[in-house]
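Lecture 7 notes: from sequence to structure.

We start with a single chain of 125 residues. Read the sequence below before looking at the structure.
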Amino acid sequence: MGARSVDVYFPEAPWFDYYTGDKLPSTWNKSYATVAAPLSTIPLFIRGGYILPEQAPATTTTKSARQFVLTLSVFVNSRLNPFGLIIALDEQGEASGSLFWDDGDSVDTIEKENYFLAKYTYSKE
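Now the structure, written as tokens:
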């Protein structure tokens, strides 16, 4: 039998539920809170002040992989899926984040400067 709840420590900051986007109670700041942890869902929270890139997953990162369903072949390539941004604001209404992106196959991409680095900032003003 697994635990159905966990005690989580939340440092002082606004916190948001990853799945719903709901802001967590400020009374949880600088304290432990018992949160639900069903076997089907990992408890995941975002600290205010950060921007997280997200992309829908797929079976593989390469174009040549195939997923066979009955008699249909479907190309499944996560690197072709669109990106989104999750913006979790801090108390000042600001957030920042970054995305490092390379081709997914090459080695030494940093040394060869063969990558893309995006830095994001957001301010309500």
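The radius of gyration is 19 Å. Keep this in mind for problem set 3.
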